[in-house]
Amino acid sequence: MEETISLQDLFKVLKKRLWMIISLIALGLLAAGLISYLVLTPVYQATTQILVNKKEETTELPQFSSQDIQTNLQLINTYNGIIKSPAILNIVIERLALDTTPTQLTNLITVNNEQNSQIINISVQDTEHFRAVDIANMTAEVFQEEVVELMNVNNVNILSPAVHMDNPSPIKPNPMLNMAIAAVVGLMLGVGIAFLLEYLDTSVRTEQDVEESLGLPVLGLIGSIPEETGTKTTRRKKV
Fold first, then answer.
1. Where are the alpha helices (DSSP H) in the chain?
2. Does residue 7 have a pLDDT over 70?
3. 10 pLDDT more than 90
4. Does one domain contain both 101 and 124?
5. Is 33 helix (H, G, I), strand (E, B) or coil?
6. Higher pLDDT among residues 117 and 89, named by residue
7. C-beta neighbour count of 217 within 10 angstroms
8. Which residue in 40, 154, 179, 195 has the fewest CB atoms around it within 10 Å?
9. Percent of the chain with pLDDT over 90
């Protein structure tokens, strides 16, 4: 005979181990909160935007055709590689007196361009906000200077430099997100352990357990004598 489990039985198991499940959720929240606020080092991000356009040789107002924009968009991939190259980063390290190498600095810098746009974003992540701002701005400035010789062009302008803030917010860690993930993990772990303990528990405690184990109906029950009553009866017999 196949054993079937109803939703009512599942809820009974969860209710039986409810405090254990709640304890694991609380433990996960506490651990995630302590690690996020006290252990992990905050990381800040600063972003500088540069604009890549076509240099006009005439004194008239610049006119951009779709072909010009497409050509500039194709050059952006080249510019992205130049920005993170040692030719640029070595100068950045020297001017800011950074105690790092171009390879290590490359890992802190992210270069991307907005979709179908000539705007390049130079983002820098660092444990100090002021240093992230300085690196982002200096990288843009050095690139603007050096690209004239490297590519023989002068079509890069700084659109929006990174700005120092008094109370910057770190981009990571995200304590609320970490705590939410920890709560979900604690819930899943608690539910899993609850059903595992119920599956491993083969003890017989009630008449229903007897019926389920033997497959036979219960004909009668033997009542138990409370411990206090039994103790009083024994004392009377001794007297």
1. 7-16, 18-34, 66-83, 86-96, 102-106, 129-151, 175-200, 207-214, 227-238
2. yes
3. no
4. yes
5. helix
6. 89
7. 8
8. 154
9. 48
Q: Is residue 233 part of a domain?
A: yes
pLDDT of 55 over the 70 cut: no
Q: How far apart are CA 159 and CA 162, in angstroms?
A: 10
Q: Could you tell me if 75 and 135 lie in one domain?
A: yes
Question: Residue 208: is its pLDDT beyond 80?
Answer: no
Quick check: 227 pLDDT over 80?
no
The separation between CA 20 and the C-alpha centre of its own chain, rounded to angstroms, equals 26
52 in the same domain as 33? no
Q: What is the dihedral of CA 202, 207, 208, 209, to 10 degrees?
A: 10
H-helix or E-strand spanning residue 112: strand 109-113
User: Is 36 in contact with 178 (CB distance < 8 Å)?
Assistant: yes
- Residue pair 130/164 in contact by the 8 Å Cβ criterion: yes
- Residue 139 maps to which CATH number? 3.30.70.1130
Task: Give me the number of domains the chain comprises.
Answer: 2
- CA 54 remoteness from chain centre: 40
On whether residue 73 sits in a domain, the answer given is yes
152: left (phi over 0), alpha (psi -120 to 50) or beta: left
pLDDT digits (tens, 9 = 90+) for 151-198: 887 888 899 999 999 889 899 989 999 999 999 999 999 999 988 888
Q: Is there a single domain that holds both residue 233 and residue 142? A: no
Quote the distance between the C-alpha of residue 96 and its chain's center.
31
Residue type, 1: M
